[in-house]
Sequence to fold (547 residues):
Amino acid sequence: MSDTQPHELLARRGFSVSYKGKKLLSLIDPIAQGEKAIESISKLERTLYLCPSPLYGYGLESFLKILPQDSVIVCIEADQELFNLSKRTMKKMLENNPEHLHIINYNDAISVYTYIEKNWGRRRFRRVEVIRLSLGWQLFPDLYEEIIETLRQEFILDWSNAATLVKFGRRYILNAIRNLAIIPKTNPISDLHFGNIPVLVLGAGPSLDITLEKLFSFFPYKEKERPFKIVCVDTAVKALYERNIKPDLVVALESQYWNLQDFIGLGTWEIPIAMDFSAIPKTFEFLGKKHFLFASPWTYLTFFHRLKNADLLPDTITPLGSVGLSAVKIAQKISSGIIITAGLDFSHTLDSFHTRSSPSHLEKLRRSNRLKSIIDADNAFSYGSFAILSKIEKKVRSSHNLKNYRDIFEKEFAGEKRIYDIESSGLHLGIRTLSLEEAIKILGKGNNIQEKIEIITDERKRENVKIFIQEEKSMLIMLCEILSSGLHKEKLESLLDKCDYLWAHFPECAGTEGRRPSSENISFLKRVRIEIDPILKRFDLALKELE
Fold:
């Protein structure tokens, strides 16, 4: 028989398989060995059991009988011939357990995660456990390990995002409702065009200080004379102000009040702001009148669909969780030229978490005295922080959260050939790193043309926003009446789904893409009722500000 086909040999209680010169199953009782392997597997709730190269699936039938109802087994076979063999020999088992046993044939980790997400949604599983029933996994050991590790990392990220949503979800929607009032007074971010000239995107990491000093010894400080555009994060604005370097666009993402100190003390500076739909509404009052609105939907909400249908949803970008990543995404959206990043460190030193003159650095200087050092050892060596090598092989410190954002950056932008990073003490971002000389050469080739964009209040949109708010209020009032009276329960399910911003941040709902408890769950309904009044008040405030 050809070595490219699975070769079956009769064993004591089943078959052994030889394939591509390797024995994949033992000749000595493979069924008993499979069942013995299963006995060592922990039976856990809400667990994805991944079984690489199951072959005949010996032992799985016994395991399915004791498998928790909220756990599943996904068998994966990267080899097409072995996949055909497993699908044929496990056919009856698959048909009898359609909800708890699947088999797939994929050759990359992302496709596997996409399959899991499509079939079970996010936050369905807490962990990944591996079941090895044969030696077939040794045909593609690196691939299977990559799949296992990717699934584990994606599950961690899903649960981490859910925790963030539980903490900030209510704040996001309250801000967004209030920001409905500024939609007629702002431009969508797509109205801003930088053409094909180079764009320098600035974060607020400690490396920004040295980069700015070296970079602007070659270029004029005035924005009208520079051959490139500057997009910076809000935390970096004061650092630029101290050096009289005026950016062309500031990106503001933060939903909490403490972020407003980034804009205090900037004198008469007027700079266009790209403001997130969920950002603190007061952001709109800073840095002049040229404001551009964008949305990075923080979770699945039917609220966003209704906004889109009413032609009120701002231009959307991928929610990345970091203002630095969002700034790069926006630069990518409004420019067709080369993008060079600096100050996106995702790391820190013992005495600096941000660039000099940033609010946190100024606060640290104010508090330092003979008894309190500028070196913040408690934060620098806090639980979860660690030492790591930077792009220039210098030891810096980072944390799991910062490293996670770095990984997201690489995943999002590594394939973009027009995005570069400047050599510095920050972490490697997974894109090409330029020396300062290379960056200066690229940035110097541009021709910075100043565009004039007027912000004109759109009266048509003002009326549309009013109508939209009144419709939202009507749904909330009706839901409130049903919850209070117990009448018209047939409308309850529909209204709960439409008013999903009331419960999307609940611990059991966060990050599940719209899954929620049933309308029979009294505890859930009581919590929904509590959320209605603050939301109604926020809609009323938005209506008042529209006048």
Q: What stands out?
A: Residues 181 and 544 are 8 Å apart (CA to CA). DSSP finds 17 helices and 19 strands in the chain.
